[in-house]
Design a protein that fits this description.
By secondary structure, the chain is an alpha/beta fold. The protein has helices spanning 8-16, 22-40, 48-63, 105-112, 155-162, 179-185, 219-229, 273-288, 304-319, 337-348, 351-364, 370-390, 416-420, 427-432, 461-473, and strands spanning 43-46, 74-78, 116-121, 168-173, 188-191, 211-216, 259-263, 292-296, 396-400, 436-443, 449-455. Strands 1-3-2-4-6-5-10-11-9-7-8 form an eleven-stranded mixed sheet, sandwiched between helices. The chain is globular and about 65 Å long.
């Protein structure tokens, strides 16, 4: 078996035994990138030279008896996380030539643990989208069918993992941007509890919703990567001062007696029958492992999409005001300062980013703030309360990750509302700040992956990982690979 097809845990065992070197692993991943990247287009920047240099350092350290948690493991980073000396573009023309002078907290933590940077992955511009078709550079393709989208906004990261162009990756999740592409690409993706992982160095889209998380080939690797990136960071005031457990300890525990909540609001008209069938069968599998399915209600779910697109766009309009062409990034020359601002933003931002800035600016404007932004915050509280009530009865909640499998490129680009509805099952998790994970649970008749979403209590990623691993090990969905 090729090294690029293995996971973190398997490679770490082989590296620690001296059966392979970090250079061997990087060579395998780079060969895979050479073979399939033209079909997938997962990357914005490929850091081949840096990867081999980091691998050599890892091999030197291991030869000296130093073994780090991710030593010599090639990981891809979504291109909205700052990497010192390596371009960070957010897949936007306005940041095309931006090279950060500092490292994000998550990538700094990965460096401390010896990782190898394989490259920066493509995304919907500034993480605004559900298909990676909003990238300012190119569209990433789904490895299972290159005529279809990989999901978004972390489509590049999910596609890279599914295509074995890296061993694992980091993504960011504002309304489903880790879980939805993970589902559509047939890999594992987790959005941790808001505050579990530092956002320092993550280019902000919607600051009260954004959260960084792992995209991996299996649940064990998800736990390993979550261990590496979690924890309090004094540079991020939203980083929670809570203890970080060893998430790998949750792997392998029994789920007998675990109560699984099944919310009626997530099995609705518009849900693809093939997706519903796969998810229902997954719930049955969890029951066969000793869990008990319980019907629950999340009554304000129907308001989640509207609430999200008021709050997220409002925060985006504020966060993106900093891109004016003065201090960094793209700059268009105007006849005066205001003209320069206008021409820079007109040429630098794509249509979806402009749309969201305008929506958010309107929602925050005088005379409309109470009617839109304030009201949305109140509904957000109701959505959060729904989850808290449900978790008094159950340990985890199980839903589809996405209402459909991957759709064809261009199918929804002319209808933004239909595109927004692609995240209908993931958005509530961000609004409530709770953790969620997507694991593969089947395929459609067309051979497209389907994802099962498990949602947990605040800071209870351990229970999610326990349930997800138990399900994963009882099936072989995660072991299937696209033919490229």
């Amino acid at each position: 078996m090729e090294l690029h097809s293995l996971g973190i845990a398997e490679l770490r065992r082989m590296l620690d035994k001296g059966e392979i070197t970090a250079k061997d692993v990087v060579s395998s991943v780079c060969s895979r990138i050479d073979a399939v990247e033209e079909k997938i287009k997962a990357y914005v920047t490929i850091t081949r030279e840096e990867a081999f240099a980091m691998a050599e350092e890892a091999d030197r350290e291991r030869a000296g008896g130093v073994k780090k948690a991710l030593s010599g493991i090639p990981l891809a980073i979504k291109d909205n996380m700052c990497t010192r000396g390596v371009p960070t573009t957010c897949s936007s023309k306005i940041l095309k030539n931006f090279v950060p002078p500092y490292e994000s907290t998550v990538t700094a933590k990965l460096k401390e643990r010896g990782y190898v940077l394989s490259g920066k992955t493509n995304l919907d511009e500034f993480a605004m989208g559900s298909s990676t078709e909003n990238s300012g550079f190119h569209t990433t393709n789904n490895p299972w069918d290159t005529e279809r989208i990989p999901g978004g906004s972390s489509g590049g990261s999910a596609a890279a993992v599914a295509a074995d162009e890296c061993i694992a990756a980091l993504g960011s999740d504002t309304g489903g941007s880790i879980r939805q592409p993970a589902a559509l690409c047939g890999v594992v993706g987790m959005k941790p509890t808001y505050g579990r992982v530092s956002r320092y160095g993550l280019v902000a889209f919607a600051s009260s919703l954004d959260q960084i998380g792992p995209i991996t080939k299996n649940v064990t690797d998800c736990a390993i990567l979550l261990n590496a990136i979690s924890g309090r960071d004094l540079r991020d005031c939203t980083s929670a001062p809570v203890e970080v457990p060893d998430f790998t300890a949750a792997i392998g525990k029994e789920i007998k007696g675990m109560k699984i909540g099944v919310p009626k609001e997530y099995f609705i008209e518009g849900l693809d029958p093939a997706v519903e069938r796969a998810v229902r069968e997954a719930i049955g599998k969890l029951e066969s492992l000793g869990a008990t399915a319980v019907d629950v209600s999340l009554p304000h779910t129907g308001y989640a999409v509207a609430t999200y697109y008021v709050l997220a766009t409002s925060e985006a309009s504020s966060n993106l005001a900093r891109y004016d062409g003065v201090k960094y990034g793209f700059r268009a020359e105007g006849k005066d300062l205001v003209d320069t601002y206008m021409k820079t933003r007109a040429a630098g931002f794509g249509p979806e980013v402009k749309r969201r800035i305008m929506l958010g600016t309107y929602a925050l404007s005088s005379g409309y703030y109470d009617a839109y932004y304030k009201k949305a915050q109140q509904v957000r509280t109701l959505i959060k309360d729904d989850f808290e009530k449900a978790f008094r009865e159950v340990d985890v909640i199980v839903t589809p990750t996405s209402p459909t499998a991957a759709f064809r490129r261009g199918e929804k680009t002319d209808d933004p509302l239909q595109m927004y509805l692609a995240d209908i099952f993931t958005i509530s998790v961000n609004l409530a700040g709770v953790p969620g994970i997507s694991v593969p649970c089947g395929f459609t008749a067309e051979g497209l992956p389907v994802g099962l979403q498990l949602i947990g209590r605040h800071f209870d990623e351990e229970t999610l990982l326990t349930a997800a691993f138990a399900y994963e090990q009882s099936t072989d969905w995660h072991a299937r690979k696209p033919a490229l």
